[in-house]
Prior knowledge:
- The protein is of the alpha/beta class.
- It folds into two domains: 33-124, no CATH class; 146-452, TIM Barrel (Alpha-Beta Barrel).
- 52% of the residues lie in helices and 7% in strands.
- It is built from 19 helices and eleven strands.
- The strands form two sheets. It has a nine-stranded parallel β-sheet. It has a two-stranded antiparallel ribbon with strand order 1-11.
Amino acid sequence: MNPKLLLDQAQIDRAREAASQIAHGVDSYIKNRSTIAVERTVLRLLGIDGVDAEYVPLPNVVVEHLLEQNVLDIGVTKWMINAVVQLKLTPQEVAERVANGSLRLTDLPWIDENQLIAEGEKWARTSLDHIQNVRQKRTALIRRLGEGKAPQLYVIVATGDIYEDAIQGKSAARQGADIVAVIRSTGQSLIDYVPYGATREGFGGTYATQENFRIMRQALDEVGEEVGRYIHLCNYCSGLCMPEIAAMGALERLDMMLNDALYGILFRDINMQRTLIDQSFSRMINSYAGIVINTGEDNYLTTADAVEAAHTVLASQFINEQLALLSGLPPRQMGLGHAFEINPNLENGFLMELAQAQMSRQIFPEAPLKYMPPTKHMTGNIFKGHIQDALFNMVSIITGQGIQLLGMMTEAMHTPHIQDRQLAVENAKYIFNNVRNLSDEITFKQDGLIEKRAQDVLAKAVEMLEEVKEIGLFQTLERGMLADVKRALTGGKGLHGVFVKNAYYFNPLEDALRERLGLKRRGDSS
């Protein structure tokens, strides 16, 4: 039970309807397009891994091989399956031959189209069955070990060395963390390939690689047995390799992924067409794998004022929700983001923070909201910072947030040390335990400051969403209506990787995902 704000359901419905139309407008545009990242993801899901003699990932080698011959518009699958059937090889073996120069895919004659389609669908089923087995293992472990109460305590490790991350992740779990997120190395979102193998040289974080995922998963499974609860693993499914990292996470049993539809556009200047296509496929994978996505609305408040721009956070939550639904992601897997970022010197700022968090909780009742700590207004005064984090924790437990990224009193000073995390966990556990059921005992004053603030933010979000519905999301981004950041339709990084699908385009992984998630096939009006 939570205290309820009096919110106008008709306005919430208007906002959701506008967001739905915005999302469908995006889907209509992207349905006839794919990207090199989507095609590389298909290869990874068909079992291709490894690098060539120059350490270029094999999925990149194969896709570039087809791009050079201008034949990628039918999708990578047909070329790959055609070679697999004729040469009686695995996809991995075909990729290795392409990489060493002994095979040119376009030199092979075509097998029968029906046979090719059937064989592609068979490989897709095998891949998705494997992901389903991985998901079932997670379910069994959680059933046996249990997991932390909501709000689950989320901490980060970011040493740059995966083996040190594993040590620190185990330490965090012993201290009481429920979720360990491995921050990616600075700039990885802007490289158009996934690094290979275990890495020890990241800057500001650790490279997201499949081997690093495996190492961290094993470490958290070990400590989970020790502490008697399942420890969730999170990483970053964003940037130019968004769907590839989603696939890697699905294969290695990650539990959460930062997977926002707009973050890469706004904060990494990645082309909006590229990002919106990639997020669609990545979220299908995350949905099927049972991975909870985390969206990045908290970042808006690093470039815009938390009081004046609060409605843009809510508007983006609605858009992220509707885009996720189009990818088959259920609300229980939507960690919609927001943040405790109002200037602490503002009178009654706490009340406005409470209004925003409670409003989000009521509007998205099934979503395990991802609540972010104060960062923008942390000053280096560790004592004041610890109090700011305590107030943040109070808002979270009162409003029933689901995922709590713990604030660090040394924010803006350095990457958290083990002792910083220890104090953050103690702060949150103390408050959560002492006011666990406070929300059952209180109500909000009708027409009071908190309720009026929430109503005002909702009204502005509705107005904004209905404007976005009229002009479309692409023009909205071009005008800088979100996060005060302007982006161009044909600007940013990665546009070269977007292509229009040929009429004979084939992606059996997407088709199979749509079928298993209960979604219509693209182009199917039934």
